[in-house]
Write a structure and sequence with these properties.
Number of helices: 2
Radius of gyration: 19 Å
Largest sheet: 3 strands, antiparallel
Shape: flat
Strand content: 15-25%
Order of helices and strands: EEEEEHH
Strand order of the largest sheet: 3-4-5
């Protein structure tokens, strides 16, 4: 569970961690629904659910993990300062992911075609 305004997870603040066990499947097949709820006391509840198996995992994040006004301003400033670089990095990751999917589909087609 991350807090921040940046494009990449590594550039945001980690509030909590939890793990949802998703069975091994081909890339792009698993589907996970994530729900964020904040109650009146500022407690954040995060639930992740594997759509196929209906297995879910939740975590509660208490407001003691909040940021000061100065930290929020700094994070927002960094998001503007690095917006162009962050966008390029995300686009590179997305292009690489798409290329890998095309490569896997091509390899599968060759195997099925007997080549």
């Amino acid at each position: 569970v991350l807090q921040g305004e940046r494009e990449l997870a590594k550039d945001n603040r980690s509030l909590a961690r939890f793990q949802l066990k998703v069975p091994p499947l081909p890339a792009g097949v698993p589907r996970v629904e994530v729900m964020f709820l904040i109650d009146a006391n500022g407690i954040l509840n995060v639930t992740a659910k594997d759509v196929r198996t209906a297995q879910s995992q939740s975590i509660e994040v208490k407001p003691s993990y909040g940021l000061s006004d100065e930290e929020v301003e700094r994070m927002i400033g960094e998001s503007f300062k690095f917006a162009s670089e962050d966008l390029k990095a995300r686009q590179l990751i997305e292009a690489r992911t798409e290329a890998e999917a095309i490569l896997k589909a091509t390899e599968k087609a060759f195997r099925l075609g007997g080549h």
